[in-house]
C-alpha cells in the first residue's frame, strides 16, 4: 500500500529532526521495494503474455497463409466453373440451334439421293444446284459432322454428274445442249478447261466413228457417199462448235484442234483409197474423187485444207495409170 505523500514543508521539518528523517527514509525504502516487486511481477507477466502473443501471431500468420492458399484454389476453381459454365452455355446454344435446324438438316441430308435422281433423269443443272446448296449450308455449320460426310458423298455424286456431262459429247448433241453442258462443266469446277476441250473433241470423234462403222461396204460408191456426208457433217460440227464455245487465245489450243481434224481427214483419205481400189469403172472413180474434192474445198474455208491428201490418194491408185 502506498504511504503518505511528503510535502516540501514535511521535508524541512524532517531535516530538523534526524530520527523522524530516518523513519521516513525507511518508509520510502519499503515503498520502493514493494513497487519494484510489484513491477517485476508485472514485467514477468508481460513477457509471458508477449511470448503467448508471438506464438499466436505465428499461428495466425500460418493460418493467413493457409487461407490465402485456399483463396487462390477457390479462385482457380471459380475460373474453372466459369469456363465450364460458358462451355455449357455454348453447348446448349448449339443444341438449341440444332433443334431449330433439325428439319432443315434432315432435308439437306438427302441431297446426295436427290442429286442421283436428277442425274438419272438427265437433270444435270438441278443436280449441281442441289450440291451448291449443300456446300453453302455446310459452310454455315462447319462443326456438324453429319453434314461433312454428306458433302463428301455429294461430291462423289457431283463427279458422276460431270462424267455424265462428258459422256453426252459422244452421243446425239445439239448446239444448245453442247453450250449448256460445257457451261455446267465449267460451273462444277471438277475438270480443267483443257480437259473439257479434249473430252469434247474425243466425244464427237467417237460419235462419228459409231455412225460410220454401220455403213454398208457392199457398194463402194454408196459407201463413200455416206462416208463423205458423215465426215463433212461431223468435222464441220466439231470445228465450228469448238471455235464458238471452247477455243482460247492459246496457240496450242488451236494446234490441238488442227491436229485432230488432220488425223480424221487422213482416216477419210485411207477409206477413199480403199474404195478407189474396189470400183471397176472409171466414172465411179471420178465421182468419188470429185465428191472428196468438194468436201475438201468446203472444209478448206474453215482453215483445214486436205486437198493434197486426196490428190495423193488418186495418184497412188490404179486409176492414175
From TrEMBL:
What are the GO cellular component annotations? Answer: Golgi membrane; Golgi transport complex
| Recorded coiled-coil stretches | none
Protein's recorded name: Conserved oligomeric Golgi complex subunit 8
Q: What keywords are assigned to this protein? A: Golgi apparatus, Membrane, Protein transport, Transport
Matches recorded under SUPFAM superfamilies? Cullin repeat-like
A Pfam family per the record: Dor1
What's the chief localization of this chain?
A: Golgi
What biological-process terms (Gene Ontology) are attached? Answer: protein transport
- Where is this protein found? Golgi apparatus membrane
Q: How does it sit in the membrane?
A: Peripheral membrane protein
**Family named by the database record:** Belongs to the COG8 family.
Amino acid at each position: 500500500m502506498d504511504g503518505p505523500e511528503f510535502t516540501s514543508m514535511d521535508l524541512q521539518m524532517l531535516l530538523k529532526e534526524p530520527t523522524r528523517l530516518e523513519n521516513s527514509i525507511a518508509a520510502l525504502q519499503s515503498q520502493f521495494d514493494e513497487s519494484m516487486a510489484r513491477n517485476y511481477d508485472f514485467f514477468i507477466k508481460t513477457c509471458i503474455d508477449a511470448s503467448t502473443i508471438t506464438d499466436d501471431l505465428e499461428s495466425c500468420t500460418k493460418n493467413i497463409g493457409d487461407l490465402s492458399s485456399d483463396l487462390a484454389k477457390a479462385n482457380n476453381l471459380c475460373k474453372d466453373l466459369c469456363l465450364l459454365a460458358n462451355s455449357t452455355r455454348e453447348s446448349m446454344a448449339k443444341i438449341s440451334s440444332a433443334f431449330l435446324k433439325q428439319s432443315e438438316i434432315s432435308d439437306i441430308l438427302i441431297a446426295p439421293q436427290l442429286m442421283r435422281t436428277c442425274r438419272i433423269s438427265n437433270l444435270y443443272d438441278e443436280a449441281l444446284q442441289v450440291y451448291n446448296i449443300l456446300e453453302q449450308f455446310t459452310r454455315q455449320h462447319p462443326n456438324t459432322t453429319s453434314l461433312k460426310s454428306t458433302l463428301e458423298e455429294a461430291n462423289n455424286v457431283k463427279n458422276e454428274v460431270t462424267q455424265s456431262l462428258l459422256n453426252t459429247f459422244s452421243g446425239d448433241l445439239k448446239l444448245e445442249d453442247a453450250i449448256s453442258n460445257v457451261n455446267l462443266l465449267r460451273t462444277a469446277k471438277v475438270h480443267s478447261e483443257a480437259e473439257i476441250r479434249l473430252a469434247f473433241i474425243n466425244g464427237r470423234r467417237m460419235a462419228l466413228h459409231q455412225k460410220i462403222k454401220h455403213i454398208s461396204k457392199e457398194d463402194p460408191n454408196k459407201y463413200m457417199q455416206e462416208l463423205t456426208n458423215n465426215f463433212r457433217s461431223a468435222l464441220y460440227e466439231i470445228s465450228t462448235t469448238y471455235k464458238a464455245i471452247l477455243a482460247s487465245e492459246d496457240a496450242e489450243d488451236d494446234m490441238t484442234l488442227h491436229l485432230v481434224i488432220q488425223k480424221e481427214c487422213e482416216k477419210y483419205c485411207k477409206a477413199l483409197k480403199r474404195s478407189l481400189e474396189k470400183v471397176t469403172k472409171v466414172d465411179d472413180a471420178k465421182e468419188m474423187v470429185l465428191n472428196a474434192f468438194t468436201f475438201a474445198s468446203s472444209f478448206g474455208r474453215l482453215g483445214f485444207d486436205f486437198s493434197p491428201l486426196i490428190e495423193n490418194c488418186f495418184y497412188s491408185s490404179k486409176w492414175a495409170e
